[in-house]
Amino acid sequence: MATTGDKGPALSAAIGGPFDVAYDSIRGDLYVSTGSQFLVRKIDTSGTITTVAGGGGPFGSGVSGSLIGDGGKATSGTLDDPLAIAVDQAGNLYISDHLHQRVRRVDTSGTITTFAGTGVPGYSGDNGPATNAQLFNPRQIATDNQGNVYVADSGNFCIRKITPDGTITTVVGTGVSGAGGDGGPAVNAQLNAALSVAVDSLGNLYTANTARIRRVDAVTGIISTIAGNGSLGFQGDGGPATTGEVNVPWSLAVDSAFNVYFVDQGNLRVRELSPQWITAGGVLNAASLQAGAVSPGEIVAINITGFDPTQTGGQILFDGNQATVVSSTSNQVTVIVPYEVDGQASTQLQIVAGVITTNTVTVPVATTAPGIYTKDSSGQGAGMILNADSSVNSSQNPASRGTNITISATGEGQTTPPGVDGQVAGATPPVPNQMVSVQIGGVDAPIVSAGGTPGQPAGYFQVVVQVPDDAPVGDVPIVLTVGGGSSEPGVIVSIQ
To answer: Which residues make Cβ contacts (< 8 Å) with residue 186, sequence separation at least 6?
Structure first.
């Protein structure tokens, strides 16, 4: 019979036409949906296989038919073409009961119920109970860490979301077949297929058209293409995914590093997309090279993976305001934070470069966030604290008490006159609005001057201080404070 092997080693079991797999991250069990058996089976951590859904009446023998079993044991119920499965963080199993036009749920007690769909194909029910809504040939299912369930409603050319309270809405697609809408709200976009859906740990949603894979940003709701140029085919491995070709991609999955995997069905391959991504903790003060809150006008280095900003160009956007680019390497771009973030608690950072759109990163904003330049933005280079003769201060070249030293820094915040994005300081440079102070070896150092530097862009400033007569000698710490923010620990100045 079709269930041959139940309660024995999975390697010895007969599995007819496996459709999909899902992993239970809580228990470590693996679930498999089977086509010709009309079952969902579980392989536990010991390698033993059992049937967990389907098998009631003739359906466990490979015969499809009407729905049976809601409210009872899942193994006594029936499934008709269970194309896809997913497991949520509570251990509930969801089944795309394709030809029953429903999504079914098997709870942790083993009881099966209808989770979405009336059993009649159609497109209705948004903003109401999912059990009163119509689906049309549901395919892949995904769950997120908020308890939401997403369904690729393939016959309706859309992705639908079911919240923990059971309310269903359309989150991608208009219900009309098409391929338009990139760069706008996902609910206004068209899908010419809705075979697949996946969601990553940040809540970004992924779906596949016949010749593209697209992503919906969790923060903005904007949809963009991340793979495929719109032409069916196979080319582009090793290069930008958006200029390559795919052929009816489906069965999407995203790992913890945000790599996207998919079955490229028409090409008989499984392919991987490496993310075009602002890396976690990847927004650094360009002087201190430390992550943290950014301030208006601060020069920051943004670490990137998955594409080369020197080749693609593009816009670095803070809340949609374009930042001035200072420099760019293959995995990092250095920019000046727009002064428009002044007064905000946080800002939304995203990079848009042609067809590439990165993730959106929420970055906290502070009034000031000073950092002292000791190295260049790659972490290399000599110190940049200068003695009175403009030579670089070091243990071999210390500053004398009573002489001036110059500190180069960024992160002073808003200035007078007000900072202008990308503006180069003239003969009368801007000065910080917040009070500036410096300590050398724990001793307050008199400020000679503090402000922008002629010929340098807004956001770069210098502080000239006099080494106190009672400053300790040797290699001692130096701390720059602007308003409520202080420079990074570990910066050393040499005094004799």
So the answer is: 171, 172, 173, 205, 216, 221, 222, 223
Longest Cα–Cα distance of the chain, Å, equals: 95
Tell which wins on pLDDT, 177 or 57: 177
**Residue 382: Cβ within 10 Å count:** 11
pTM over 0.70: no
Q: How far is 249 from 262, CA to CA, in rounded Å?
A: 6
At 357-385, the pLDDT tens digits run 787 888 999 999 999 998 644 444 345 79
- Structure token pair of residue 208: 């596949």
Q: What angle do CA 17, 18, 24 make, to 5 degrees?
A: 165
Residue 377 three-state SS: coil
| pLDDT for the residue 64 | 44
Q: For the segment 68-95, what is each residue's pLDDT rounded down to a tens digit?
A: 789 999 998 889 889 899 999 999 999 9
Helix (H, G, I), strand (E, B) or coil at 78: coil
Q: Rounded to whole angstroms, how far apart are CA atoms 170 and 459? A: 44
In whole angstroms, what is the distance from residue 193 CA to residue 156 CA? 9
Q: Which amino acid is at 443?
A: V
H-helix or E-strand spanning residue 406: strand 404-410
C-beta of residue 77 within 8 angstroms of C-beta of residue 19: no
Tell me if 162 sits within 8 A of 144, measured CB to CB.
Answer: no
Tell whether the model's pLDDT for residue 60 goes beyond 70: no
